[in-house]
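Quick note —
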Amino acid sequence: MIDPPTKRRTTTTGAWLAVLSLLLLLFSTPSVRAAEPATSGPYQWRSVAIGGGGFVTGVLFHPAERGLAYARTDVGGAYRWDAQAQQWTALTDWLGADDWNLMGIDAFAVDPADADALYLAAGTYMHERAGTAAVLRSFNRGRTFERADLPFKLGGNQLGRANGERLAVDPHDGRVLLLGSRDAGLWRSDDRGAHWAKVASFPDAALAGATARNHVGREQAVGIAFVVFDAASGNNGSPTPRIYVGVSTEQTSLYVSEDAGRSWAPVAGQPRGLRPSHMAGGSDGHWYLSYGDQPGPDLMAGGALWKFTPAQGRWREISPIPQPASGDGFGWGAVAVDPQHPQVLLASTFRRRTPRDELYRSVDGGKHWTPLLADAVFDHSAAPWTAHATPHWMGALAIDPFDGNHALFVTGYGIWASRNLQDFAAPQRPLQWWFQDRGLEETVPLDLLSPMAGAHLLSALGDIDGFRHDDLDRVQLQYAGPRLTNGESIDAAGQAPQWVVRSGTVRARRNNEIRALYSRDGGKQWTAFASEPPAGQGAGSIAIGADAAQVVWAPARGGNWRTSDFGAQWQRVDGLPDTAVVVADRVDARRWYAVDVASGQLYESTDAARSFRATGVQVGSPARDERTRPQLRPDPWRAGVVYLASPGKGVMRWQDGALQVLSQPDEARSLGIGKALRAGAPPALYLAGRVQGVDGVFRSDDGGAQWQRINDDAHRFGRPYSVTGDPRIAGRVYFATGGRGIFYGDPR
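Predicted structure written out below.
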């Protein structure tokens, strides 16, 4: 997801007093032990199966243990491959709301001499609201972690997030780690990542120009793109002498140390004018570097692949195909070397628009190349929706050190794996790829709905539109019909739930696509509205009346508009400010409700949303920050009843013209309503927020007076939001996360 602009932070250097003070601070700060995963809790939690859906920014195989592999994501944490179960296991679900910024993994590393050691450089953003970064270190393959906070920020969801790796373990001395920051230079640990100090000898001037602008013009720090130890230069038991550091700049970008990091110098003869992304080497002494004119993934329109032979001080360009003579250029995303066969290489294009991005293979050290995707066979059975997705953002590659037939490449929506990388050249043996994302869920849900009939869950998702989840545990096809890029709002009629509406955005809107759709069969088939309102820019929020006779759409910056014929005609809703969000009563088609997110005022309609009147009731604090906006949740069974979650005022109920405050938790981010656990009891209320200082997911069985936490310390999932109960299954709850997809829970 795109966040507010990053302000480049400045770091004072060269003052011994400042360095000494920093070291004292670092070495006096204790690390925090992650909670042991709970064996039981009040709820059983499962991921709603979507299959990938987000940008996997890095993959690696452990060089010394067959079947051990890891993946990192830009907003959804880290995963370990379970070879026996043939699925990914999430490793960072224990991170909670206070540590949501650590769910983005900017780099990771393993110790070649210790298969149990894993290190994560965690930090999603560098803006003002984001906390500082941390190195999460595990010595049991990610089952538990220890935390070492860093005095700077990282950008796991910022530019250059597929570069790397910025974090590396010395292959001859596992105590030593190096971490390349984005705006604070090079850092070193001598105690397996517990404490960190800046490498004063690495030149500050090397970071000149190591920033870039994203697709909306916001400048972000990229800094050091990778750190690579040259294992062949050293021996076990002593620090590796030769180390390479690549910096994302068009100037001098590759530096080398020959004395284990005590001094640094630019590598002679290196190319200039492009930014390095990856560096990979083989046992034959050759190194390969991928370059782009931008760090990616937002922009890249030029690049090259280079071969470097240190023994001869020789550089040679080995790009598999040249840049086009005219039109859009492209970069080179990643390069990988087969550990068993150092002449076998993989390299990926990046943002090649015509005809498409491609993966190339060489068996002679880059002299000749074979394209791998155009004529390959892709197995989409694990995630059928991927049949409509084209591999792109191929920013990381890995070849299995124990099986040259097995390789991985990432895309903006997951991981593809080869079955026969070495053998595909045999007659009648096309190259095969399968989608290796089972267990890896990285979508960012923007809205969720559990209707009164049909599928128990409908979703609106960032980047991949949304799904009708007929089976929560099996990957489904995306909505059939016109496609949205971001599905941002979805609603179903309370008394006619087969009628569903949704709105969102369309990337590269070339044909004036309508950005709202309706379904008459519970979300199976969709039809675009006849038109959009006269004002607005799509997306926004959309709501449908209890009898499906009226729809109100508030597109972004367009105010509220009403239609009774799905967009053939539009009428502006009377009595509402443009910043109001509207919902419909679930039982009475005449009743609608609205809250002005700017002023916090509550509004009500009794004429089917033709007009609204101010109730004179304040339900929120005046704010334009989405984190402080109140949320309306109509009661599924009672007319004239709507619940409200207000971050500043608590959990409330509007009924019969009166507002009742039910409880005042520390924070009420989102509220859901579901079927009661017992006959005759009030509806079950679900809260994503903070109660008595503890953040989590809570349930109330007494109308909101008391709350029971239903998640546990092992299942915090970052910062849950957009919670909704199931009106048909007692105790069932769904909630969205900021990068771990959708979860659903049932009482144990």
